[in-house]
Each structure stands twice: as structure tokens, then as C-alpha cells.
Amino acid sequence: MAEYINKVGRRKEAVARVYLTAGTGEFKINGKEIKEYFTVPQFQKVVLQSLEALGAVNNYDVKVNVCGGGFKGQAEAIRMGIARALVEVNPEDRVTLKKEGFLKRDSRVVERKKPGRPGARKRFQFSKR
Question: Which CATH number characterizes residue 34's domain?
């Protein structure tokens, strides 16, 4: 494996730059441990899903820079970045990761607010009189 593999994952407004190296399972997100950055266990699980699908949680060191969006978007962006990096390490893993849906970009974003309305679709209360 090369020195490190650099891949990008995106979800909603979140962008995650993932650096994957062969190692012992060390995981840093913006310089913090995963349990320190994502205090909710659900998000920790989402981040590790692509590694767990291949049974490679302790085989790689992962360093992530993530910005934008909320915690859910960031967690799913990191998952996608890790999946892309794992495919570059071993192209045979693509089938497994693609079947789980970790390589597909989820393009759903918040709909913009329209003029003359309080939100994207909501209307102000109608009063007949």
C-alpha cells in the first residue's frame, strides 16, 4: 500500500477528507478521538460501518478532516470517504461496499426557501376575514 490514500466523501453540506494508512485501528477526526468527536454512539457506528463490512476495523489508521453540515451529514460523509479509500486499496472489496450502499452519493439536500413564504413549502396562515 502507498504512504496513504486520500479520498473525499460528501453528504448534505458536509465534506470529509479521509486519509487511510495501514496501521492498528487509530481513528482521528479533526484531531480528536472518534468517541470524543461523536459523543452519540449511533454516529460512531455509522462512521465505522464501511470498515466493519469488510472486517478491517483494526487494519487501518484513519485520519479525517471534516467540515460543514451537522453530525449526521458528517458521519455519513466520513463513511463514504472511507469506503472510497478501501476500494482503492483493494478493488475486490467494491462489490461488498456497493451492495451495502456506501459508495453511492446521497444527493438529497435541504430545499431552498421560496420568496413570499416562511419556508420551502409552508405558507402563511390564510385568513378569509
Answer: 3.30.230.10
